[in-house]
Amino acid sequence: MRRNNKRMEGNVNMKTCDNRDYNLEMGQKYYHGTGVKKNYRKAAGIFGSLAEQGDADARNYLGVMYENGQGVKQDYVKAAEWFRKAAEQGYALAQYNLAIMYERGKGVEYNAAKAAEWYEKAAGQGDASAQNNLAFLYRQGYGVPKDPAKAMELYEKAARNGCTAAQLNLGHIYEFGKETGQDYVKAAEWYRIAAEQGNPAGAMSLAELYDKGKGVPQDYIEAAKWYKIAAEHDIKLAQTRLGEMYEKGLGVPQDSEKAAYWTKKGVYFRSWIFNMKTLFDRSNRYKRLNEMIAKVTDPKLKSSLIKTRDEYWNRIQKLNKPNFTDEDYEQIKQEHQRIDDLISKME
């Protein structure tokens, strides 16, 4: 998951006579639209000058801008190059970003071992998101030997450093018990921590435990409270269940109007399930394409496969709408089949 831009804002209100700090501050202001009108081109110009002078902050920003096509033409290769320059200076956020490029095969060849190496460097500096992503690699055995104990250690570090993704991962691990044995009490503890930080997925998971009385006493009032938070963030399953609770008066006063409102909001629950399956299917095919690309030695064929992979990713992204139509569904199936045929042919 790409790091939230908020992490890159820095202290944009700092006043200093130092040219480097002043220029970096102005670049950040133009990038984020803080106190000035957002202008990616101006930001890219400022960051470009600072990056050429060796500024790690600016190099990382420039990497993000090339990756996203902000103020510059989108170019994953240049993005990776700038991330690498900053990463080699020991800049943790750039190390994290470079690891993602290796994990996704963007601008560099897919290489899970290299991704793990750069996540390790960033994680060693206390970067919680890197700790979380490295934990996933150890849990699955991608690029590193499979080590569930090491994964749990890293998830806990990341979770205690405030990474809500890690808190949710721990909640899921304890809830379903594949590595640890089921422990609903611990699952509830981690979901609560994530929920109290405002994470809607944490609120949804905690609501379900209160609804079913797992790890916590069954409490429809608490369940409804957390479902409502998740529902307000457009989590369809929460909207559907909250509608039922208003209809039956479970944990909330019976209210047919609110029941109808939330039921209607959650009517696309089937779409939501299909969307999640689509993303899962896309990720699996993307990984298989990356593994195939890594084995190809012919430069033209490699370039063609990379283009096909990126086009596939983007087409699925556009088709995977909240309220997909039958036509969208058929197109998604065709896209998946096209990639499956390509993979079978190459194998």
Summed up, what is this model?
By secondary structure, the chain is mostly helical.
Give the topology.
Elements: H1 19-32, H2 40-52, H3 56-68, H4 76-87, H5 92-104, H6 112-124, H7 128-140, H8 148-160, H9 164-176, H10 184-196, H11 200-212, H12 220-232, H13 236-248, H14 256-265, H15 269-295, H16 299-319, H17 326-346
Walk me through the structure.
This protein is mostly helical. Among the domains are: 17-83, Serine Threonine Protein Phosphatase 5, Tetratricopeptide repeat (Alpha Horseshoe); 270-346. It has 17 helices and no strands. The protein has helices spanning 19-32, 40-52, 56-68, 76-87, 92-104, 112-124, 128-140, 148-160, 164-176, 184-196, 200-212, 220-232, 236-248, 256-265, 269-295, 299-319, 326-346. α11 (200-212) runs antiparallel to α12. The longest helix has 27 residues, at 269-295. The protein is globular, with a radius of gyration of 23 Å. The model is unreliable at 1-17 (pLDDT under 50).
